[in-house]
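[agent] plan:
  1. take the single chain provided in the ticket
  2. run structure prediction with default settings
  3. attach C-alpha cells to the ticket
  4. add a short note for the reviewer (M.T.)
[agent] executing step 1
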Amino acid sequence: MHLREITDDNRDAVRTLRVRRGQKQFVASVSKSLKEAARKPEANPWYRAVYRGDEPVGFVMLSWKPPAGPYQGRHFLWRLLVDKRYQGRGIGREALLQIAALVRADGATELLTSYQPGDGEPWPFYQKFGFEPTGEIDDGEIVLRLTFPAR
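[agent] step 2 finished; step 3 output follows
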C-alpha cells in the first residue's frame, strides 16, 4: 500500500471511490473533497490517493500546517476514505501509519482530526489507533489528537 499524487491520469479513477451508504454522513466524497481543497487554499490542503498495487483504494487529505485559522501551523487530517470494496483489510490503518510518519518527519508532535458523532461513527477506528479527544468541538465535530512520543 502506498500514497500517490492525484494527477490528470488517475483523477477520474480516484473520484469513483465510495464509502458504504451508512458512512456517507461521516466523510465527503473525493470529488467534494477536491472541490473544497480548491476553494480553501488558505487551509494548505495536501491530498493523495491510497493505492494497493496499481489500484486506487482510498483517499486522504490533510490541512498541512495552514498559516492561519484554528489549526494554524498544525497538521489536521481532513479526510480519510477507504472504498467500500476494500474496507476491513487494514488499508485505513496502513494509510494512517504512513500519514503519521510523514507528519512526524515534518517535525510535528501531534496529528489532529475530527469526526461527526453518530451511529456508525469512525471514533472506534481512531481510538484503536491511539487518538484521544481534545475536549474541543469544531463545527459540531469532536476534535481528536494523536500525540507522537518524544524522539
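[agent] step 4 note for reviewer: The mean pLDDT is 94.
[agent] ticket updated
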